[in-house]
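fwd from M.: "can u put these together and see what the complex looks like"

so here's what she sent:
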Amino acid sequence: MLYLMRPKFTLLENPLIERMLDEAFQLIEDPGVRVAPYVEDLLRCAGITVKDGVAHIPEALARRLLELVPREFYLYDRNGRPAVHYGANHVHFDPGSSCLNILDPQTQQARPAVSADLVRLVQVAEMLPQFAAQSTAMVCNDVPQEIGDWYRLLLVLWYSQKPIVTGAFSAQSLHTLIDLLAIESGGAESLRQRPRAIFDVCPSPPLNWSEFASQNLVDLARAGVPAEIVSMPLAGATAPVTLAGSIVQHAAECISGITIHQLAHPGAPIVWGGAPAIFDMRTGKTPMGAIETAMLDVGCAEVGKYLGLPTHAYMVAGDGRFVDAQVEMESGMSALLGALAGINMISGAGMLDFLACHSIEKLVIDAEAIASAQRLIAGVEPRGESLAVEMFAQTGLTGDFLKLKETRSLFRKEQHFPSSIIDRGLTVLDGSDPTILDRTHQRVEELVASYERHLLLPEREEEIIAFAEREGQNYGWKGVGEILRPDYVSEPGLIG
Amino acid sequence: MPDDTFSAMRQSIIDGAPSTAADLAQHAIADGTTPLDAINHGYVPGMHDVGEQFARGQMFLPDMMASAEAMRAAMAVLDPELKKQGAERPKAGIVVLGTTKGDIHEIGKTLVGTLLTAHGFQVHDLGVDVSGEKFAAKAKEVDADIVGVSALLTTTMRNQKTVIEALEKSGLRAQLKVMVGGAPVTRRWADEIGADGYAKDAMSAVALARELMQKETS
């Protein structure tokens, strides 16, 4: 008999979720949702009234379209194997995305991120099993701004085999990113069949699908590349101050986005996701590490789960400016809550300072918190015919469990062993007394040293290089050669 | 005008009570108090207190917004009276404000505009998704002392630089100060793009604007 129970954290009772959805459906009809001209005809053809740029979406239609959304789907790794399972209570983590700054590994001060930083982060995340997916984590300040969008994806595709959480900076650049992914996948149809990446698409709170976001939703649906709605109500500023009210707004933004998306291509994969936050009434900042922000994340995801949809949230980020106790306390708590809530993709690890800065050191410490969260949700598993009686039959009252064969065969399944970052009292051979930051630096170096790039098929490598050179030259940039060189070694900050 | 009336004016701002602030302004005019006295001895000290309490973490942004609203209500009564008398409230400075091209976030920028107005600045808010050329054109039109550029996204933050470039192109850069702000913006970024100042939040933006005005006039 199996007694395995997956630990779960629940914030909202079903009657409250139903009330939230009821209000969300009211909102999308009245006052309605601001939409871009790009989608007005699409909506009108479905019988939706669009007046003065505002769509008034009837509940019955929105509910029908919600039914069309796939309840689950996969992202695939470079070898075409399913590697991220969106749906049900599958939990995955990926690093935070599109950061302009990095905490310099040497000085631990924020500075603009450059290509070498992104390569290094990708290599580290590649080596950490806690991250099921990569993200286009940084904007590289050492290349022309005009190519920055697809360039992030280029580096991640080049240096990683894992699925990728990404996003486009404009309506036009989305197509460049999809073209790049299609080359790597072996064509647009292969990409559609086995998508390697998912694209974040953000409505503007409150209830506004801008030209860029509307267009991204439609174009992704038609390309068959998964979309991830990242709705960002800021409680008290661009959304109702109450957590419940902000969750309603999040639901309304997601439902209206799904309406646009499913009308463009019924059955296309899309995720109920977000990066909600409270608005700090003292500073006007949006603390990602606040417990209320984590509550918003969990609450929003619970509404999506109630509808049976795949879910996403932005968690595991801290707000301090340095890798310190505050940042790790905030990140660890939200990692735990996100995992217990069964959120399919939890983005944000490595980020600090209100998402303004990335840190590779924080990323590897966050990986430890994530590993603990993953251990927790694996639950307490009964192993063997008896739970304890058979072992006691062997030891009697001697307490000599260390000698039992069960101990030796099961301890690795029962206990998670953190890396050397976590101080569990292991003897340091050289007699030094390293701080957690010292241990983390060493761990980063070890991970980078153990990283080995897996080559793409030669013709695809050539095609990607040709693509990058062609797109780069349009903006007078010829630097693709060095960073894609087979013997390239990422040293922090060397390029730029 | 008795001190307790000035004190009540000050308190109406601290309480964020627009109708009380407006009533007191009307009574003051009826009693023959000059609008400038009411402003300088009643309402402005109230805003000053609010700013101090905010800085100490004793007041919060919604309180501050309410205080700014009360200030606006009082000024709606006093401004016409000032004009009648041929007087003018001394302007702390003229500010052109907006969110950069490609960015439609306005909460931070609006907050800054509200507080600058409450602190005596004449603010021209261009809204969101504003090009560098629009900033330059408005700055020229109103003879701005300061151009304030907000950006919430890492992707649109870079357009703060294009505003500065547009001001340079139009020959206005040397005549005014540029301040930048927004969630992803740092002092380092401000320095890098050649802005004159960076403010981390709305109240700091007021302090920065005052500081820039001193530099402007010195």
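replying to her w this: The domain at 93-217 of chain B is CATH 3.40.50.280 (Rossmann fold).
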